[in-house]
Design goal:
By secondary structure, the chain is of the alpha/beta class. It has one domain: NAD(P)-binding Rossmann-like Domain (Rossmann fold), CATH 3.40.50. The chain is built from twelve helices and 15 strands. The strands form four sheets. A seven-stranded parallel β-sheet has the order 3-2-1-4-5-8-12, sandwiched between helices. Strands 9, 11, 13 and 15 form a four-stranded mixed β-sheet that branches.
Length: about 350
């Protein structure tokens, strides 16, 4: 039987990935320190849905990572555990480094020393590309778009770590690639764009699609930083879980590579477009507040998915509009989970 260890497995992506792999017959273990809001609720939900093993551990504890990886010797390690907010990295860069750079190193090195046959998937971020000031941007149809990149940004875009978060995730990204080159590990890094879907406890600083949806359902004002014309490609978490499995299925071909993984040019929206969708779904007027642009915010980011299609034989299947409506219904049906949200 194939087996998988998912770090950060009590998070939004983690529990959805765990459900995906368990339903496909994998022995599934999730590892988490339960420090984030919603983590305990996610674990409880997952245990009610699936038979999975849970390890309460912290990726900053190298000895714990060695012990768990040595005991499990999993077919795959999906590394999701991270500090995930740019703003938090600016206010507390040391904690950001210890979670994202050192934490990833600990898990990766535990695989190298205790289970080198495991396939290692690192969840990176499009923030490793920085602001991409060299790419021309235009305003079309009320949103920002690339002037000359109709298919989006490819993996050949130069890395430019902007913010401590970009630095820490970028270091993890590069360690993952280099461990394939130097030690012959089967490892791959996914530079993920905006992921959304059920079980996402978004906050203002991270998970903007979920945060906008939660705030709209609760009737709370939403702050737009900038002019709201910033646009992103967005990917449903169900499609992302399929990409992880596709990477495992093609592990010989993809090892040592980085892939941009997102909704691609066919699944994009601006901040203001999401507000419009929510107002339609909820039949309300969403109260908005406005503030200055935040440091490192990209006016637009869209993944070029050509390499993902070629090497992973993968592409998104869930369009934006029905995906947002599904998330809206989930938040409506689970309002009690968000009591006390400010």
């Amino acid at each position: 039987m194939k087996s998988i260890l998912i770090t950060g497995g009590a998070g939004f992506i983690g529990v959805n990935a765990a459900r995906h792999f368990h339903q496909r017959g994998w022995a599934t273990t999730i590892l988490d320190n339960l420090s984030r809001r919603g983590a305990k609720e996610n674990v409880e939900w997952l245990r009610c849905q699936q038979q999975v093993r849970f390890e309460n551990a912290d990726i900053r504890d190298f000895r714990a990572m060695e012990r768990i990886v040595d005991e499990l010797r999993p077919s795959a390690v999906l590394h999701l555990a991270a500090q995930v907010a740019v703003t938090t990295s600016v206010t507390n860069p040391r904690e950001d480094f210890e979670n994202n750079a050192l934490g990833t190193f600990n898990v990766l090195d535990a695989v190298r020393t205790k289970s080198p046959e495991s396939f290692f998937i690192n969840a990176s971020t499009n923030k490793v590309y920085g602001k991409m000031d060299d790419i021309a941007i235009v305003e079309r149809n009320g949103r920002y778009e690339y002037r000359d990149l109709p298919n989006g940004v490819g993996e050949d875009q130069p890395l430019d770590f902007h913010s401590p978060y970009g630095c820490s995730k970028g270091a993890a990204d590069q360690y993952t690639i280099d461990y394939a080159r130097i030690y012959g590990l089967h490892s791959v890094t996914f530079r993920q764009s905006c992921i959304y879907g059920p079980r996402q406890f978004g906050i203002e600083d991270q998970g903007w699609v979920a945060w906008f949806t939660i705030a709209a359902v609760l009737g709370k004002p939403i702050t737009i930083y900038g002019d709201g014309k910033q646009s992103r490609d967005v990917l449903h978490v169900q499609d992302l879980a399929g990409a992880y499995e596709a990477a495992f299925d093609h592990r010989e071909a993809v090892s040592g590579q980085a892939f941009n993984i997102g909704g691609g040019p066919n699944n994009t929206m601006s901040l203001l477009e999401l507000i419009h969708y929510l107002e339609e779904d909820l039949s309300i007027r969403v109260p908005l507040q406005w503030s200055n642009w935040r440091p490192g915010d990209q006016p637009v980011f869209v993944c070029n998915l050509e390499n993902a299609g070629r090497f992973l034989e993968w592409q998104p299947t869930i369009p934006v509009r029905p995906g947002i409506s599904q998330l809206t219904r989930w938040v409506q049906h689970n309002r009690t989970l968000f009591d006390g949200v400010t």
